[in-house]
Amino acid sequence: MALCDYSLLCNFPKCRTKLSGFAWATACSHIFCDQHGSGEFSRTPAICPACSSALSGKLDIVRTELAPSEQYKAMVLVGLRPETILDISHRALAFWTYQVCSAYICFSSRG
Ligand SMILES: [Zn+2]
Ligand SMILES: [Zn+2]
Fold first, then answer.
1. Ramachandran region of residue 14, left (φ > 0), alpha (ψ -120 to 50) or beta?
2. Most exposed residue of 11, 14, 34, 72, measured as fewest CB within 10 angstroms of its CB?
3. pLDDT, average across residues 28-32
4. 57 lies in which domain range?
5. Where does the RING-type domain lie (predicted)?
6. Considering every ligand atom, which ligand is closest to the CA of 19?
């Protein structure tokens, strides 16, 4: 699947670093490298450097491991109802699609 070949890039203006290791994702569908995330989101109120949204909620910013361990993957959704699991997957895929589309990659080649 072509979408999987794409690496997310830091959304910080002029950074565009390929994300690896840890990244910071926001409720406004932006994602940042560890350096910019930890710098920008340590101050309050946190403001998204890509779109200026206020990120005041507890879960508006998450620091996420991009290549989680097998153990984490085996356990993170365990116990949730199937519709909840699908809902989470759906939202995470929407985030991915948004990122890839906003980088103008992949979708232009679709008939
Ligand atoms: Zn960055
Ligand atoms: Zn944003």
1. left
2. 14
3. 96
4. 2-109
5. 10-52
6. 1
Residue ranges with CB less than 5 Å from ion ligand 2: 28, 30, 48, 50-51, 53
Query: Any idea which ligand is nearest the CA of 61?
Result: 2
What whole-number distance in Å separates Cα of residue 1 and Cα of residue 16?
Answer: 23
Question: What whole-number distance in Å separates Cα of residue 103 and Cα of residue 98?
Answer: 9
pLDDT tops 60 at residue 107: no
Of the listed ligands, the closest to the CA of 24 is 1
What pLDDT, in 10s, does the model give residues 37-84? 999 999 888 999 999 999 999 999 999 999 999 999 999 999 999 999
Over residues 11-33, mean pLDDT? 95
Ligand 2 centroid–CA 32 distance in Å is 10
d(CA 94, CA 101): 10
